[in-house]
Amino acid sequence: MRSRLAPSPTGAFHAGNVRTFLLTWIHVRAAGGSLALRIDDLDGPRVRPEATQEGLDDLRWLGLDADEDLGVFVQSRRGAVYEEAAADLVARGLAYPCVCTRSEVETAASAPHGPDGPRYPGTCRGRFASREEAARVTGRPVALRFVATRGPVAFVDGRYGPQAFDVAEETGDFVIFKANGTAAYQLATVIDDAASVVDLVIRGADLLPSTSRQLLLARAMGLASPAYLHLPLVVGPDGRRLAKRHGDTSVRALRAAGWTSAGLIGRMAATAGLCAPTDRVTPRDLLPRYDPTRGTTMPIVLDASAFSCPQ
Predict the structure, then answer these.
(1) Angstrom distances, CA of residue 36 to CA of 5, 8, 244
(2) What is the mean pLDDT of the chain?
(3) How many helices (H) and strands (E) in the chain?
(4) Would you give the distance in Å from CA 121 to the centre of its chain?
(5) Cα distance between residue 162 and residue 61, in whole Å
């Protein structure tokens, strides 16, 4: 088994990130597998340069190590790889230039909202022969969209069971290269998982709908698809994804408040039934207690009050 830790340096690690990384680490290590490390730093202006090192420091403090011999993939350094793959998809008629703005897609009468926002109505499909032509004719920045084939794309998730999403119906043709000249998440993650020989992707349940898109891309590029295991999100009492509005649960803030790594690991492991909330444990302590067949699909409800007593 080979999986990966893929932090995104858009902000400080918080309790939800810790839970996902911890359970990924335990699942893989309990099976005797290996872990690659990847820095997902393509999210434009949201990326904070200092957050990369902060995230690596937090992982080290928590005891969540990757395997150094697998190397570190930094997505911002792999633009040429993504560009070549995108150009090949365009050349084969599987992707096309698009100049539509987000607001134009959102206001299109024929674009009802799916699980990840409005469905793209196909406005630019067949409109331009190349990115150069699209830029010349419209004077706009040009993105690339992948042609979504019709029909449900099915897979079996390791936690949520059988899943199927009709990408063409729910999302429409989706962006694989952004108008700012960087690869979109869907394209970059498929290419990098294959390059790292990742055969199991463990991540948050908010990315379940992305899986079918990534399966379509992998097939189009002739790449092997990994298995998937999605974990329930950590949410606040209001049911929304854990964020600053629920209080500061960042690793940095918790460390400053007096939390030890063993205490924080114990607090988060307790949400998966691996120990008591007040236990102080290391990730390795939890390996004998882990049962991969157990685990909830319900969101984990927490806020800053769960961390009011450092341990």
Answers:
(1) 6, 14, 29
(2) 90
(3) 10, 14
(4) 25
(5) 36
Read off the pTM. Answer: 0.91
What is the reported pLDDT for 103? 85
For the chain, the structural domain boundaries read 2-76+232-307, 80-186
Topology annotation, domain 80-186: Glutamyl-tRNA Synthetase; domain 3 (3.90.800)
Alpha-helix runs per DSSP H in 31-120: 49-62, 79-91, 102-107
What six digits make up the tokens of 202? 């463990």
Residue 188 pLDDT > 80 = yes
Model confidence over 115-151: pLDDT tens digits?
A: 667 889 999 999 999 999 999 999 999 999 999 999 9
Burial group, residue 151, by CB count within 10 angstroms (0-12, 13-18, 19+) = exposed
Distance CA 248, CA 271 (A): 19
Q: What is the dihedral of CA 10, 15, 21, 22, to 10 degrees?
A: 160
Helix axes 79-91, 185-195, angle to 10 degrees: 110
Amino acid at 227: A
**Quick check: helix, strand or coil at residue 183?**
strand
- Tell which CATH architecture fits domain 2-76+232-307: 3-Layer(aba) Sandwich (3.40)
Cβ atoms of residues 230 and 156 within 8 Å: no
Structure tokens at 27: 């699942």
Closest alpha carbon to 204 in 13, 21, 10, 2: 21
DSSP-based three-state secondary structure for 216: helix
Q: Inter-axis angle of helices 185-195 and 208-221, to 10 degrees?
A: 60
Residues making up the chain, counted from first to last: 311
Q: Which residues contact 94 (CB under 8 A, 6 or more apart)?
A: 146, 147, 220
For residue 225, give Cα distances in angstroms to 68, 136, 156, 256: 23, 37, 12, 41
